[in-house]
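Lab notes, practical 5.
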Amino acid sequence: MTDDGGHEDEQGGAAREYRMEELARLAGITVRTLRFYRERKLLPPPRREGRIAWYDDHHLARLRTIAALLERGHTLTGIAELAEALDQGRDVADLLGVGTPTEEEPVRLTPEELAARFEGEVTPENLAAAMDLGYLGTDGDEIVHISRRLLDVSSALVREGIPLAEVLAAGKRVREHADALAALFTDMILRHAPEEDLHRLRPLARSVVEAELSLALDRRISKRG
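Output from the prediction step:
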C-alpha cells in the first residue's frame, strides 16, 4: 500500500485507488447512484480492506462507459447484459494465441467506441457472435478487434443499413470458404515449394481469390441488370 491511497500493481508501479465518495465525484455521479450500479452488478466488486472499500481505475473506466452508453440510449438492463457478455468473453491472449496476424492489424476500442461504430447494433447476442468468430477479445477495460479491415468493412455495411447480425452470419460463412481456400493453396504450394516459402507466396494466393471474387460479383451484377 502506498501513502496516497494506492497499492503496488503487478509491474511494481503505484495503482491509484479511490474511496466511494472520490470515485463518485470523479465519475460525475452521486454516491447513491454508485451504490445502485454496484447492486445491479454493473461494477466488479471493490477491494476490501477491513470495512473500507477501495475502487480503482477499472471501476472509473466502467462508470464512464456506463455514462456514455446511457447517452446513446442503452438501458441499464441492456448495459448489464453487455457487461456480462464482455466479462465472459475471450481474453485477448486467447484471441491472439497464435501470435498477432502477419497482415491484419488488431484494433483496441473502449466499449463506448464500439457502440459508436455500430450505432444501436451492439447487443449481447451480436457481441457473443463476434467473440465466437474470434473477431473480438477483451483486455481489461478494452475490447480488441482482430482486424482493422474487418472492423472497417463491417461498420461500413452496418452504416449502409445491413443488420450487424447478418454481417456476422455472412462472416461465419465466408470463414468456412476462406479456410477451404487457404487449405487448397497451402497444399498446392507445399507440393512444389519448401514450407518457408508459404509466407512469401501468400500474396499470390490472396490475389487469385480477390480477382475471382471480383469476377463473380461482375457476373452476379450483370445477371440482375
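Observations recorded by the TA: Confidence is low (pLDDT under 50) at residues 7-13. The beta strands are 7-8, 14-15, 17-18, 47-49, 52-56, 107-109, 136-139, 142-145.
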